[in-house]
Amino acid sequence: MHEQKGVLGFLESREKFPFAKQGIVPDIVINPHAFPSRQTPGQLLEAALGKGIACVGSLRNATPFSHSSVEAITDQLHRAGFSSWGKERVYNRRTGEMVCSLIFMGPTFYQRLHHMSEDKVKFRNTGPVHPLTRQPVADRKRFGGIKFGEMERDCLIAHGASANLYERLFTLSDSSQIHICSKCKNVANVILRPVSGGRKIPGPYCRICESADDIVVASVPYGAKLLSQELFSMGINLKFETELC
């Protein structure tokens, strides 16, 4: 047995399928690119071996402990009346014309996996987020977010979908705001700052400049804000250049 899987991309009636000169109609037409991509050429050898022994009615040992050579398999198919690799002519069911290319057909074992597309549908606009990073949680059962990695990001950049990229990675992810002092480039804190009259009101305040006059609000991902806070706890201070848009 060889590990191989696929997704049914199209269902067609038996009356429209191509057929061999013996009248055999295949059950499944598989994309040949599936074998080198999943590195399962052994399934082709198994199908060729099964085709040869089915034609002559013999028995062969197909366990992993046997060593059936490729030459023996091709020679058996050739003696059964096929080409060396078991390819044969098939005919178009709709027109009755012979297909120009030689097609390989052979018996192989397949079983249906219980993976239905309706069970895998997943969507989300907003929902629960992680308490530390404030990014969407994982897992479909918890109504989590859909993975969007670097390769997906590169695809959107290549297509010029900058607004969609901004929405995916910022608006619907971990958008937040940070207060920055445009004078000293440091992060300002939201505290109870003193005002005239001896009162204190909550608001952004730069402890370095001891002023609240040059504070600007910048929209940044919360992950970047969390990184700056963790670096600050290690004694590394980040300064931010701001520019009014």
UniProtKB/TrEMBL annotation:
GO biological process: DNA-templated transcription
Keyword Transferase: yes
Keywords from the UniProt entry: DNA-directed RNA polymerase, Nucleotidyltransferase, Transcription, Transferase
Single annotated GO MF: DNA-directed RNA polymerase activity
Limits of the RNA polymerase Rpb2 domain: 144-242
EC number: 2.7.7.6
InterPro entries: DNA-dir_RNA_pol_su2 (IPR015712), DNA-dir_RNAP_su2_dom (IPR007120), DNA-dir_RNAP_su2_hyb_sf (IPR037033), RNA_pol_Rpb2_7 (IPR007641)
Listed GO CC annotations: DNA-directed RNA polymerase complex
Keyword Disulfide bond (UniProt): no
Span of domain DNA-directed RNA polymerase subunit 2 hybrid-binding: 2-142
Family: Belongs to the RNA polymerase beta chain family.
Designated name of the protein: DNA-directed RNA polymerase
Organism: Medicago truncatula (Barrel medic)
